[in-house]
Structures are given as structure tokens and as C-alpha cells.
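Read as amino acids, C-alpha cells; as here:

___
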Amino acid sequence: MIREALTAAALALASAGAAQSQGLPPIEWTIGPSGSQTAVPTVQLTLSYRTSGKGLNMNSRAWPRAELQGLSPAQLASPEGAPARFRIAREAGTLDCEGMVRRERGTGECRFSADPGFAAALERRGIGRPTLRQQYQLAVQNVGMPLVQELERQGYERPGIDKLVAAGIHGVSVTYLQALDQSGYRLRSLDSLLSFRIHGVTPDYIRELAALSPQYRNLSPKELVSMRIHGVSPEKVRGYAALGYHNLSHAQILSMTIHGVTPAYIRGMADAGYGGLSAEQLVRMRIHGVTPAYAQEFKARGYALPSGDQLVRMRMSGFRPRAKNRQD
């Protein structure tokens, strides 16, 4: 019975959606538990529609349950299954959705109604008029005039519709922009802003690095992105500092990270008798395959420890120490 009701609702909604969405394909929705540990109850909502060919446009993330207007917790938790109707109202447009829910899960279809006033407002600001599909994306990502105004206030270049959609998809919000501004970063360039967001350069990351060393204050946007891309975390910086490597420059810590000079590697080399090496020496050793185990071989076989440079040259030549007094 549930399947028959859902099929009937989907067929009716698909017919209505084709007319009201002005050519946007039927939008399917599914709901399930989000697994997010937040103070605000959320659900995992997935919205998708087929594009030309075999393409699929999909958005899936945790949504505050309160934003699904008309869907009550009791309906969602129904053990027997219940019809569901809810609305998602955004500045760019509205999604009206129907389907069935049962035990915190559900599925159905939505129709999207674009707000013509929002499209006109974007056009008046010189951003352009979105296509229906672009406006749907702006609605789903909750991109509205407050974000446009904040970009203007901070002196960012005027975005085109595609850039505005990309900003929404990658989570550029008014809150994020304002927090970056408070951290001293008005990037001006939308490409730089998107790079920050894509690679996880957050205001918290900026503040944590700045608190660790004067070397990490006022880093350029490119330097911050490169550190994030290569896995330079505040924890890693603290690990180096605990071994005596304080105030490493951006270039030094990036080179050490890229070439695998980890705190564990540094400790291993120190145990082998090579403590106090410079960042550059450690990187050179790592590049040429000098491992703590290789260095330990000299001590274990009764050799005087070679210098760091000698160790690198021997490793490059393929030399392996043999026990003294060994009879061939």
C-alpha cells in the first residue's frame, strides 16, 4: 500500500512539477538519519535530478529538520509509514515536496518554483540573470542577497552566476566571510576565496597557526593553501616544536612535510646518533633514502658514525656497512 501511494504521489507530482518548474526535470528526494552530533536536530537530505544523457545532479548534506516546513518528527518516525509533504523556502525559490516517510527514512519528489524577484535583483546588481537550473542551485545552497552584499562590502570582485553557484556549493557563507575578515583576510578574488574553502583554510586554522609562531602570522593566501594541501596541521607544528624545531619558516615546514620528515623520523634519526640536524639536512637525508635503520647499521657493526653529509653520499652510492672482522 505504501509503495502504491508513493507511486501515485510521484506520478502526480512529476506531472505538476514539469509545468511549474518550467522545464526542470523531476527532483527526487530521500531522507535518512544524518549522524551529525549537533545541538540542532538534522536529517540527511538528498536532492537529485537527471540531466541530459546519463548525468545526475545531486546535492546531499545534513539539513536542519526545522527547514523542512511541514514535516513533523512524529511523521518522520512513524513505524507504519505516513504520507509526507514539506516545503523548503529560500530567497531564490521554493521546493514543494511530497512522498512517504517511515522510521526516519523517506523518499518522494519535489517541484521547484523560482522567485522571479530574486533573479531580477541579481541582474540589477550586474551579476546576471540565472537560468532555472542555476537558480535551483542557489536555492538549494541557500545563497541569497546577504551573501552578495557581504561580498560587495568586503570589496570582492563582482561574481558571475556560475561563481555565485560555486560559492554556495563549496560552503561560502556570510559567517565564513566575516570570520575570515576578522582574521585579517579580505581576499578580494573569488578564485582565492573558493580555493580557501575547497582546501579547508578556515578562520580557526589561521588563528591556531598564528598563535604557534610569529612565522605563521600574515601568511599569504597561497602559503596558507599550500600548507593545507600538504597536511601542515597545528598538531604537526607543535610536534616539531617539541623536538626543538621552533619557528620553522613556511618554506622549511612545507619542505619537511612534503618529503616525509615527520616527528617520528626526526626521533628515529636522533636515536641513531643524528640529533640536532637542521631542517635542510633532514630533508636531504629523507630525499636520498637515509632511514634511521640505515644509520643504525653503522653503530651496530662497530663503525664510527659518519657525518650527515657522508651518510647521504654513502647511501647514494649504495654502500652498506658490514661487520668489522667479517671473513669473506
About this structure: The first helix runs from residue 2 to 20. The CA atoms of residues 252 and 279 lie 7 Å apart.
